[in-house]
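[User] Could I get a sequence and structure tokens?

[Assistant]
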Amino acid sequence: MTSPRTTALAFALDLVLVIAFAALGRASHQEAVLGAGGLGLVETAWPFAVALAVAWLVTLAFRKPLAPVRTGLPVWVITVAGGMLLRAVSGQGTAIAFIIVASVTLLLFLVGWRVIATLIARARAASRARAA
């Protein structure tokens, strides 16, 4: 069973990575991270942050938050699809190039850290088994 602390940290990391994705996107287009009125990053990130929260609820990610396939992949798919849908209904752009970049970047971010965490956990377990 995953501890509440681990679950909270996993969600927080996902959220930080979604915000980092939005900040990187703004910076790559030479847009100020804060933008006009100081809300540029919020405007860019909110659709994906909301979709991430929905993804966590729909997939029951809190049950196995570190699992790359069981949790990471569905959270990624829902975050990208939901984020794009929310961007579209709020009048923000959803160009094909953006969808591709967002999909690849969020795949690396949301699934990638879980793969790394799983590999580290397996290496530690193997090391403990050899030491015993």
